[in-house]
Design goal:
- The protein has 323 residues and is an all-alpha fold.
- It has one domain (11-260).
- 76% of the residues lie in helices and 1% in strands.
- It contains 13 helices and 2 strands; from the N terminus they run H-H-H-H-H-H-H-E-E-H-H-H-H-H-H.
- The protein has a two-stranded antiparallel sheet.
- The longest helix has 32 residues, at 2-33.
- The termini are far apart.
Length: 323
Amino acid sequence: MLDFFGTIGGAIMTPLYYAVSFILVGFHRGLTAIGLDAAGGWTWILSIIGLTLVVRTALIPLFVKQIKSSRNMQLIQPKVRELQKKYGHDREKLAQETMKLYKDSGTNPFASCLPILLQMPIFLALFRMLDQAARRGKAHGFMDSTLAGQFRDAKFLGDIKVSGTLTGGETGVMIVAGILVIAMTATTFMTQRQLMSKNMPADALSGPYAQQQKMLLYVLPVVFAVGGIAFPIGVLVYWTISNLWTMCQQFYVIRNNPAPGTPAAEAKEQRERAKAEKKGLKTPAQIEEERIAAEADAKREEKASTRTQPQRQTKAQRTKKKK
């Protein structure tokens, strides 16, 4: 049975080893071609950074879907709470109506997890490839035994090995690895905190979705901090750069395309108003506000000018009245 699962795992991981090593080795050879030392630590660090940028660029379409899904999930939370109040006694009906709401609003509750779920196999392949190269000089994919040996022995900042870990026992390695673990944990926390504080409406800050986000806010950094203890410095570089990419990418999206009714949306409106005032123009929001106000004034004037017309009486009614 173990052999069976080992074979299945190898069949899944082998293509990832080739894909990850192809990009990593490609950057390594390119940097070597322009004069960097093939066995130098900085050559491997820059190669890992290049790998990170390629992977994150490829995941941009999924990140866009993630942002849209997260935004829709935030906006429909009031409706979800209404369904919970209405069908709280009937879980099956509640599940059906909730799924119907997701479908009608074009929301996929699992889309927000896609980027990290797709990154995990890549991360695992990189971790195993670099970890085994560091420990045994083992080859994987396009990273042959020669390159694996170079990575194992590569040093930067003096005598700090790229393959070193926080538990390696060497003071310099432990300091650098510790800094990277803290950076990886902090960027994970800040990214999640940025989403909750800037791009969530006030009425979405309660309920199951908000509780899920709060749990991720504190659980994910702890998971990465504990796991990071065993990561080689090269892997810590990958994940820290990936987190920085996520944080900057999310900041850009939240700043330029925030969810309605959020602090980020208010901040964007204030920036647009300030720019428009300098140019003597009006923002679309101001124009819409003036249109709504004008319509309301027109309705009030129409109501005020309307007079109750006397009802016309028949001849019989007039005769009866005279009598």
